[in-house]
């Protein structure tokens, strides 16, 4: 699997700069002012332990991570952290997003604007297709809600082709039906929780064919060659917070 890279901008109280977000469908990585951050969700991007900024500022001693709260201050600027993750900043980027238009695969562009506040991050998505723009609300709580908002206003015959709309995905935490294998990486995820992104469980092992898969937890905007559309998601039925009805049946979601 080839990683995807998305060009964008990072802004905080110290200024703005061009950045590149890289993902493999499960783990995000971004380099800001010479400092690497990574995490499974946009609201859980933490400084990479032991990584020295390009400016030559020392990395945390003995490979220790940066402080969980407050300010992480390499030489080129300070970063605000909450629970060890990047906060009090804005990320903006565009990514290619596959869509089906009357059964034909097309490439659209999804513009993403994320305000990473300490409480309740704001997310806005805008899908650009054939000169038209289809937008979510200005303050969505996560990628799942924002992508559903976009899908609802798309013309008939136009469907997103990403993990959020795949028949083999379901929100995490979940109770996997007995006939399906548990997502490989779900055991390492603490708690019942639902994040800003990366909160989908992919039952890729149930697809029955080797190849391009991401069994475990995946990001909502990821798309693989084994994608199979979930009719219930595209039509707006079964898309609430409690269930996701896919190719292999319902995935009951635990209460959170």
TrEMBL record:
It comes from the Bacteria. InterPro entries: DUF6304. Residues 48-70, 232-256 are annotated as: Disordered. Residues 52-70, 234-243 have a biased composition (Low complexity). Pfam families: DUF6304. This is DUF6304 family protein. It comes from Streptomyces cavourensis.
């Amino acid at each position: 699997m080839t990683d995807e890279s998305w060009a964008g901008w990072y802004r905080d109280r110290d200024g703005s700069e061009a950045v590149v977000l890289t993902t493999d469908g499960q783990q995000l990585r971004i380099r800001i002012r010479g400092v690497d951050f990574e995490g499974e969700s946009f609201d859980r991007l933490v400084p990479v332990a032991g990584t020295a900024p390009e400016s030559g500022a020392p990395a945390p001693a003995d490979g220790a991570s940066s402080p969980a709260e407050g300010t992480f201050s390499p030489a080129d600027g300070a970063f605000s952290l909450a629970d060890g993750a990047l906060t009090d900043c804005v990320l903006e980027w565009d990514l290619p997003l596959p869509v089906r238009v009357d059964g034909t695969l097309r490439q659209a562009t999804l513009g993403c604007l994320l305000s990473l506040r300490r409480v309740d991050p704001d997310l806005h998505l805008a899908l650009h297709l054939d000169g038209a723009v289809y937008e979510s609300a200005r303050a969505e709580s996560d990628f799942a809600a924002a992508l559903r908002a976009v899908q609802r206003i798309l013309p008939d015959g136009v469907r997103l082709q990403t993990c959020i709309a795949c028949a083999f995905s379901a929100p995490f935490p979940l109770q996997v039906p007995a006939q399906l294998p548990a997502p490989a990486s779900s055991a390492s995820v603490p708690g019942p929780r639902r994040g800003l992104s990366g909160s989908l469980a992919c039952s890729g092992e149930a697809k029955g064919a080797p190849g391009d898969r991401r069994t475990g937890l995946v990001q909502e905007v990821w798309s693989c060659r084994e994608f199979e559309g979930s009719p219930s998601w595209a039509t707006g039925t079964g898309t609430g917070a409690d269930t996701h009805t896919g190719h292999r049946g319902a995935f009951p979601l635990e209460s959170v």
